[in-house]
Amino acid sequence: MTRARRRSSRRNASTRRAGGIGVGALALLLLVAWVMIGPDHDADLPFGPSAPTRTASAAPAPSASAPASPGSADPSTAAGGLAALEVKGRAPRTGYDRDLFGWRDDTDRNGCDTRNDVLRRDLTDVELKPGTGGCVVLAGTLEESAYSGQEVAFDRDEDNSLDIDHVVALSDAWQSGASGWDEDTLRAFANDPRNLLAVEDSLNRSKGDGDAATWLPPDSSRRCDYVARQITVKSDYGLWVKPAEKDAMQRVLATCEGFPAFTDDAGWPAPRPAAS
Fold first, then answer.
1. How far separated are the first and last CA of the chain, in Å rounded?
2. Which residues of 88-107 are buried (b: 16+ CB within 10 A; e: fewer)?
C-alpha cells in the first residue's frame, strides 16, 4: 500500500470514529435532559414492544343518584312520605264495585251514617233534623272549602250543594292495591275520616275518580294539603302511586318545600240533640 493510500485510510477511520462519538454524545445529552426535566405526560409515548399502551383518561363516574331535595327523606314531611311509597302502574278496574266499600256504613258505631258525620264535622251553624238522634244535618255553612277556599251554604232540602269527596277516590284505590283487600279493610278505608271532605258537588264531580296527575284543587294554595293527605292515606293503607301521579305530587310539593306530613287522625264529632 502506498503512503498516500495509508494516509487516506487513516483519515476515513478517524472520521468514522468521530461520527460515532458525535451521535452517542448527542443521545446521552438528550437522555440527561429528559431525566432532569421529567417526562411530558401530555406528549405521545414512544412506540415499541415495551412501551405502555396509551389510554384515554376515564371520566369521573356519575353519582348513583341526584342529591335528594331537602325533606325528601324526612318521614315527618309529605315529600318524605311520598318517597317511601311504592311506584307501580295502574291495575285493572276489573271487579270494581263501589258498593263493595260499604260507604256510609256506621263503622264507628255512633248511630250516624258517615255522610252526616262528615257534615257535622265540616260545617258550622249546623241545623239538625229532629228525631234522628242528633245525626242528620239539614243545613249549615262550609266556611272554607278545602278545594276552592270559598264559603258554601248548605241546605239539604233546597239545593243540597255539597258532596262528600273521597280524597283518594275509591276507584283509584281499587286500581292501586285495594282490589286485594278484605271486606273490613274496604269499609274502613271508605269511611276513614282522614279520607273524607265536604266539598262543592261541582268540584267533586269534576274530579271523578282522578288522582293528582289528572285533578288538583282549583285553589292552588290548597294543593299541598290535598296531596299531603293523599300520601298519608295511601301510605297507611299500603296503596301505591302511579308514575305520573308521583310526578304530579312532586311538582306540587316543590312549591311548598318541607310541607309537613298529614297527621290529623281526629274521629267524628259525637251526635248531639237537635235544637228544639
1. 154
2. eeebeeeebeeebbbbbebb
Task: Label residue 51 by pLDDT band (50, 70, 90).
Answer: very low
Q: Give 174-213 pLDDT, tens digit per residue.
A: 999 999 999 999 999 999 999 999 999 999 999 999 999 9
Q: What share of the chain is helix, strand, coil (3-state, %, to 5)?
A: 40, 10, 50
> What are 245's strand-pairing partners?
none
Q: How many CA atoms lie within 13 A of 107 on its CB side?
A: 20
Sign of CA dihedral 114, 189, 163, 267: positive
User: In this structure, are residues 128 and 107 in contact, taking their beta carbons and an 8 Å threshold?
Assistant: no
The Cα angle at residue 70 between residues 69 and 72, in degrees rounded to 5: 70
pLDDT category at 33 given cuts 50, 70, 90 is very low
- Do strands 196-200 and 124-128 pair parallel, antiparallel, or not at all (unpaired)? unpaired
